[in-house]
Amino acid sequence: MSEHTSIHGQWSSRLMFILAAAGSAVGLGNIWKFPYIAGENGGGAFVLFYLLCIALVGIPIMIAEVMLGRKGRQSPINTMRSLARSENGSPLWALLGWAGVAAGFLILSYYSVIAGWALAYVARSVAGVFNGATADGVQSIFTDLVQDPERLLAWHSLFMVMCMLVVARGVRHGLERAVRILMPALLALLVVLVVYAFFEGAFSTGLAFLFQPDFEKLFFRCETIGGVRQCDFTGDPMIVAMGHAFFTLSLGMGAIMVYGSYMPKSSSIGGSVMTIAILDTLVALLAGMAIFPLVFANGLAPGVGPGLIFQTLPIAFGSMPGGQLFGSLFFILLVFAAWTSAISLIEPAVAWLVENRQIGRARAAIMVGVTVWFIGLGTVFSFNIWSGEAYQLFGKTVFDLLDYLTSNIMLPLGGLFIALFAGWVMQQPSSAAELAMKPWVYGVWRVLIRYVAPLLVIAVFLNRIEVF
Ligand code: TRP
Hints:
Elements: H1 14-25, H2 28-40, H3 44-72, H4 76-86, H5 94-126, H6 135-146, H7 149-169, H8 175-200, H9 203-211, H10 216-219, E1 220-225, E2 228-233, H11 236-248, H12 255-260, H13 269-297, H14 308-319, H15 323-357, H16 361-382, H17 398-425, H18 428-435, H19 439-467
Helix pairs in contact: 1-8, 1-13, 1-15, 2-11, 2-13, 3-4, 3-9, 3-11, 3-13, 3-17, 3-19, 4-5, 5-7, 5-15, 5-16, 5-17, 6-14, 7-15, 7-16, 8-13, 8-15, 9-13, 11-17, 11-19, 13-14, 14-15, 15-16, 16-17, 17-19
The structure holds tryptophan.
């Protein structure tokens, strides 16, 4: 094993690592998923618990993942194997790398379909389809799209080809320039949308929904049926919030680990991780602040599900000055954000294939891409020919099941084991030397990674199981 660099190359600087990891973290999770799950899970209290998970679980585990990657300098599977050896752990730790590869395949399989929606919306905004559109009109544009398996398949295929192209060339090429320009542009556009929502939306209602916690909603789901309020105990909001903390920071499956393995030795891990986590959280909160005022101003339900941003933002673009341009730009940037995230989902598998099967990156990227494309068919059909109850399990479609299994179970479990490895298996001098933090910062991290993060993950799991 090489001590200093990975065989796949290295980022040119610390900034390059931050850009790449931020490119991975900021994606559909922030702009598409965060608003719709916040809407489904009652807003405020859910958002607060999600922020708590970012701080106490996400950030320490992200530091651990980068550290393990940079120390191991290989694909996550081989990194876990060789670190387990050098730290006197069991060779079974390599399984963690394998589970990560599996999670990456499953996540990308549906991520690509949703990115396909964003691609379809680029075409529609450029063509001016949303100009002057009403809430109903926008709703039917969305329904028409997802009910057509052929169209979804075409966009999903295009997005997978885009991913294979980048991964085949090596993730470093072009990523730096892309993220450096696109991330600020995306932030600026989100600010434009928030300003629009401030003037034209139900801003205070939207903000109250997002930031005023009603803690009952973490435990109960209430419905008013025929004038009678009925509440059911639920374990979902907390596990969804925690799962999303992993999802949005790209944690628990080796994506950040493999990016860490390309990180120069001299740069600070803690500082980089803080920058990435803050940026990621900012994008999600801005997206929420843009969307919920529009939801309430147009009398839509916050809990409509995965179509939320596709059914709300076009209303804004349809009526604001310059909306056609802003709308087109927005969906283009959304596609780019999804793209820079998607490539990190298959990089661990491709790096492993290159290391262990002696094949080139291009062939590895195609093999992985075709497999993921195929699994993606399940999600393509979830919104049309397989949307009926005959094709559901526990009332969930293939898409719902994949999302639930990966975000809420596989990623937190992966993260839990990463925390246990970094905090308990790895010797203190090894992690202290690799992180090179100020002593008190290292002390805080160590308490978080050994006790706080694992216990919080376990507590949320147990809470969910009990409700089940
Ligand atoms: N974090 C990305 C988003 O929010 C998605 C993503 C990329 C991801 N790589 C990952 C999620 C690895 C989990 C694990 O859109």
